[in-house]
Amino acid sequence: MKYLKILNPNQASKKTLIDNQNLNFLLKKRFNWMKKFIRNKKIIIELGSGNGFIKNFLGSKIITSDIYKHKLIDIEIDMNNLRIPKKYKKKVDIFILNHSLHHSKNPIKLLKKIKGMLNKKGMILINEPEISFIFKFFLKVFNHERWDLDLRNINKRNFWLQNNATGRILFGQKNKNKFIDKNFSIVKNELNECTIFLNSGGNSVNSPHIKLNDFFLNLLDNFDDILINLFPKIFALNRRVVLKIK
Fold first, then answer.
1. How confident is the model at residue 80 (pLDDT cuts 50, 70, 90)?
2. What burial class does residue 216 get, using C-beta atoms within 10 Å of its C-beta: 0-12 exposed, 13-18 middle, 19+ buried?
3. CB 3.0 to 4.6 Å from 52: which of 64, 124, 130, 230, for a disulfide?
4. Residue 13 has pLDDT above 60, yes or no
């Protein structure tokens, strides 16, 4: 049984951010760290933008894309068959993947294609779920998406699709990927988020949550940092990664 109501992009409108301060706080945290990397950059494309909320936090210069076009999506792009307008090829400064890499059928192939579309100083900014004990429990209870850390299954159909272990497999210290090491320098690779994620109400889903103001959300965020520093494999729910072309 599904306990989470999936929202389509039109349902997840800008009004959601006004009504849900928890979600607004979470997304601000997810995007604000990217500001120093996109400063003075001209061509920035987000893949898998979903509802297009990124513009609310990083500005209108972000080119949003998704497989489905709607009012907050600038261009239609299927990241599983990645093609971008010719005017952007080899000229993109930044690609952003915010909780979308694990929806790729083959993230390694996707990152390879992205590399070919970046300019020589190009970077990829990533937020990706971290498959900690808490997140496994959450996915199991709510019957939402899946995970598979067993690389013996890597050649099976749809191993990667909706695999919330993607971040751990590609960027976890004990699972360094040869393709990543060969093609990219990892500029940032850090864990964060726990209760502020679980109590956000959801970005593309409608989940139960307790409404809080910024004071208490900041307290929770600081508490999360303590938990994750002490027990990352139990509590971390998000991984931030910055890749730079070698």
1. very high
2. middle
3. 64
4. no
pLDDT value at 107 more than 60: yes
pLDDT of residue 174: 61
Burial class for 57, CB neighbours closer than 10 Å (0-12, 13-18, 19+): middle
Strand locations in the chain, DSSP E?
5-6, 44-47, 62-66, 75-76, 92-98, 118-129, 184-192, 205-206, 238-245
Tokens linked to 226: 């303590």
- Reported as a single tens digit per residue, the pLDDT across 217-245 is 999 999 999 999 999 999 999 999 999 99
Rounded to 5°, the CA angle 232-234-240 comes to 45
Which residue in the block uniquely carries the two structure tokens 């590609």? 170
Of 122, 54, 49, the C-alpha closest to 88 is: 122
Predicted TM-score (pTM) of the model is 0.92
**Which CATH fold would you assign to the domain 5-245?**
Rossmann fold (3.40.50)
Q: How far apart are CA 208 and CA 81, in angstroms?
A: 35
